[in-house]
Structures are given as C-alpha cells and as structure tokens.
Amino acid sequence: xxxxxxxDDASELEIETTLLPQRIARMREVAGRRLKSLSLVxxxxxxxxxxxxxMRSCDIFGIQNVHITHPDGPVKMHRGVTRGxxxxxxxxxxxxxxxxxxxxxxxxxxxxxxxxxxxxxxLEEIEFDGPTALILxxxxxxxxxxxLEMADQCFHVQMHGFSQSFNVSVAxxxxxxxxxxxxxxxxxxxxxxxxxxxxxxxxxxIDGHKDRRKx
Length: 215
Hints:
- The protein has helices at about 20-30, 50-60, 80, 95-105, 145-150, 170-185, 195-215, and strands spanning about 40-45, 65-70, 90-95, 110-115, 120, 130-135, 155.
- The protein is an alpha/beta fold and about 220 residues long.
- It has one domain: Alpha/beta knot (3-Layer(aba) Sandwich).
- A 7-stranded parallel sheet has the order 3-2-1-6-4-7-5, sandwiched between helices.
C-alpha cells in the first residue's frame, strides 16, 4: 500500500516506528489544520531567540512553510525556545532576500511586509483571500530596501498605547494569529492541505522520528 494513503490503524504503516497510535492520530489531526497558503518570511533576523520564537509561533498557528534569509551561514536556533517545534515545519533558508522573495512570489503568494508607513494597512482589515506571505524585518534595521521595493503591500498592527513597536517575535505571533484566523475564516475550514498532502506530511514526521531514534 502507498505510504501517502490514510489508514485507520497506525500499525498498518509500512515503517518501523516506536510511535504510539495515539501520537500518530495526533499528527494527523495537526496536519489537517496546517495552512500552506499562508507563510512567514524572516528578512535577515540575527537573534537565535527571536528566530526560534517565530518558529514556535508558526507551529502554534499552523503555518507550515517558513522562509529565512540569513547570509552568514546556517541559522541558529535556541533549543529551549523551539522545544523541537522546528521539526514539524518546512524551513527554507535563502542567502539573500531578493532571491527569497522572487521564489515566494513566483509560487503565487502576495508579499505583505510589516512596515508602519502612512500607506500601510491595518492587518485586521485585510481579508486574506489568497496565498499570502508575511514578511518581518531584522531586529535593529527593519525591512531591507529590496523587501520594501518588492512588497505588494505593507501592513501594521494597530496599537493603542505610548509604545509604537513590538519585539519582532511578538510581532510575528500577533501577525500570525490575526492572519491565520482571517485565512481560515475565508477558507471556511481549519486547514488547506489536500488529503494526499496531509498524508505525505505525517509520513515525513514519522520518518523524522525514526531518524532521530537511530541517531
């Protein structure tokens, strides 16, 4: 039988695994709530704590695909912050933001950049009626000039106090909550992966578990 086919009994999976059936059932439940039509792009973040916190928010809000630009070698994660959530995500690293955004845009995503300029839109007023990538800028310098040039729109999160900025990981969490809620409302369902895509994703999680057990 195909490994991308749903089965009623976890013991039927053609793979050696120590996972309990309840754990595999939980994986299937989570896969059914994943969004592929909403993604996150991190424009040259440096702090491992911030990057890791953004990854955790992606997992929490069901965002499967993450793009990170980091020209200075492999991205470092903070194990105590991620708590292993990065193993559930599709994380793609790019050497530069232009290549990253061209890749995302060619895949059919609208580029929505976090920037509180006078023309930016309140995130809560955006409908999210199509594939969208949220772009957040670096801790100290914000969005790169290439991002501001290539973005289709800019957005801001409405603030009501004296402080007029968030830590980037907080901004990611709030933005992902608002956008994922809006996207699911538009779709009328919790996730947008096909049954075949869900099955492939679950199988990749099982395979990853098996590989970690061997290492």
